[in-house]
Design brief:
By secondary structure, this protein is an alpha/beta fold. It has a domain of 235 residues: Rossmann fold. It is built from 13 helices and 13 strands. The strands form 4 sheets. The chain has a 7-stranded parallel beta sheet with strand order 3-2-1-4-5-6-11, sandwiched between helices. Helix 1 links the parallel strand 1 and strand 2.
């Protein structure tokens, strides 16, 4: 059982949620929450330590506190949360390298838990229906968060070879959503009109934010399980999600994904990239047999239940228009109208 746990990224929503959950475990003597800015939310009984994991100082913090378990939550999915793509990559990749270097030098660290992502599998028309943990993607992510996740996992595997005595668990989460968390995917389905790749209706899975915290807690306090996919039971398609969210859709050519992604990002309504729109075209499926058999975890919420709870907390559209055209013409200060005009220009 862990006694002294260090958690990175506690100023972010999921990091704060996790340390509050971990604080309920009386067997853990001390929890250190590390981030570059003080959290605006409660972090339970965790002690906040202001530090940048890109700085070697993180090693001194581990040594002074005699940390035995490190939970790496600070792999950031969206550039807007860091001020841009360059900073995002530095935190994700350079930060992970420095953190692992500190873990390698530490004499006290016995376990490393990494919050990873199913984004490492990429998304392409050649993908299998379900990815198991030992499968490689047909097309590796080449940009953005997916590429960062691939690099992060590569560094973790390198660390495991250098420190075989340290137990390692990496949880590859499907998209985490819920009533309170804000991510690129929740922003997307909150848009007044949803651009959908024409001719596609991809399927994918979700994880409820509470289930994600339970899985991470099990990974931290239970036995080491290696790499495990984490997703809620069942699937939803893009069009099913749009219907549940009561949002009109706007079909757009997949070739226009970059244009649409940039327009949505500039609108300030969502930080949604062209890579994420490609994910919405081809989708992704995760085999979760190891989640149940090895991690011993069964999510309380299915994919549908998770999305329905998110949809219940969505702000209703200002317009009650009965048609897509009506919604496009009225919603969000003309942003949806701009999407429509772009669509008209790029139609073949």
């Amino acid at each position: 059982m862990p006694k002294v746990v260090l958690v990175t990224g506690v100023s972010r929503y999921l990091g704060g949620l996790f340390v509050r959950r971990l604080s309920l475990d009386p067997s853990i003597e001390r929890i250190l929450g590390v981030d570059v800015v003080p959290p605006k939310h409660s972090i339970g009984r965790a002690e906040f330590v202001r530090a940048d994991i890109r700085n070697p100082m993180i090693g001194r913090i581990m040594a002074q506190a005699d940390v035995d378990t490190v939970v790496h939550m600070n792999v950031i999915a969206t550039p807007k949360d860091t001020g841009g793509r360059v900073t995002q990559k530095e935190i994700n990749v350079i930060g992970t390298m420095q953190l692992l270097a500190a873990c390698q030098k530490s004499e006290s660290v016995q376990r490393l838990v990494v919050k990873s992502s199913a984004a490492i599998y990429g998304s392409s028309p050649r993908d299998p229906a379900m990815f198991s943990e030992d499968m490689n993607p047909k097309s590796l992510p080449r940009t953005g968060f997916g590429k960062d996740s691939v690099e992060v996992e590569g560094y973790v595997r390198g660390f495991s070879r250098r420190r075989p005595d340290v137990e390692i668990t990496m949880l590859r989460f499907a998209n985490i959503i819920g009533p309170s968390i804000r991510t690129a995917i929740t922003d997307y389905f909150s848009l007044p009109v949803i651009p959908v790749p024409a001719g596609f209706d991809a399927r994918f899975q979700f994880v409820h934010e509470d289930d994600a915290m339970t899985a991470l807690t099990l990974a931290t306090t239970g036995t080491s399980v290696g790499i495990v996919n984490v997703a809620g039971a069942g699937f939803l398609t893009v069009l099913q999600c749009a219907a549940i969210a009561r949002r009109p859709i706007l079909p757009v050519p997949l070739s226009a994904a970059g244009v649409i992604g940039n327009l949505v990002k500039r609108s300030g309504l969502a930080d949604f990239s062209s890579e994420q729109l490609i994910f919405l075209a081809y989708g992704r499926g995760l085999d979760t047999h190891r989640m149940a058999a090895v991690l011993g975890f069964e999510p309380k919420h299915s994919t549908r239940e998770t999305f329905e709870e998110f949809a219940r907390h969505l702000r209703p559209l200002a317009s009650t228009a009965d048609s897509v055209g009506g919604a496009v013409g009225t919603a969000a200060g003309g942003t949806a109208g701009a999407l429509s005009r772009v669509f008209e220009r790029i139609q073949p």
